[in-house]
Automatic annotation (TrEMBL):
Classification via Gene3D superfamilies: Spore Coat Polysaccharide Biosynthesis Protein SpsA, Chain A
One CC-aspect GO term: cytosol
Native source species: Pacificispira spongiicola
Domain of life: Bacteria
Family matches, as InterPro entries: Cytidylyl_trans, Nucleotide-diphossugar_trans
Keyword Transferase: yes
Pfam families xrefs: CTP_transf_3 (PF02348)
MF-aspect GO terms: transferase activity
Protein name in the entry: NTP transferase domain-containing protein
Keywords, in A-Z order: Transferase
Keyword Amino-acid biosynthesis: no
Amino acid sequence: MSETDRGPAALLLLARLDSRRLPGKGLMDLGGRPVLGRAVDRLRRCGIVNDMILATSDRAIDDPLEAFAEAEGIGCYRGDAHDVAKRCTDACTDNGLDWFIRICGDSPFADPAVVDSVARRFLDAGVDLATNVYPRSFPIGASAEAVSRAAMERILAATDDLAYREHVTLYAYEHPADFTIDSVLPADPGYEDLSIAVDTPEDLDRARRLIALLPDPKTATLEEILKLQPQAA
């Protein structure tokens, strides 16, 4: 785990293999690597928190994700399929984390510089939650949230509504008076309605075209990816 002045932390990659729109997407091929593998390659370059734990469900359908994590040399935590807030909190407890950075596993173009910005804001501001999705200010697929375990425990204590607990931090965003939240905004706004995530077959086709355009998918900046994205559309 990564040690910081707010205690140990890790990147939690959230993934399941029974996505309604694109089942199995995390392990589908994307230019010679699984979609999740592309995310792992890029997130290894994070400078503040770069230890990774794949947080998936405890169902047999997600056994291949545990095998993937083992092959990649990253951690794996298995918990509730639908209560994702509890899964994240339990992953923290099980791994001795005081905070974590939430990354969706369908984000093969996750940007380490963006993740570092969110992590740095969390550390410097001393907040419960640092985010670039409240309001959404970066493309879908470049989202990151740094959250304290204590804040997650308060969310679990406050609500058992699955509509909140499936979406991890939604309760905090809808009850901002109860949480300290700081937002990270991009230097160049205007991309918040763009998606570079892989959530549908069309997204996967576009991502494959985009990967083929990138000289080095591991090190490409978000700016470089966004500039090439129209050519892959």
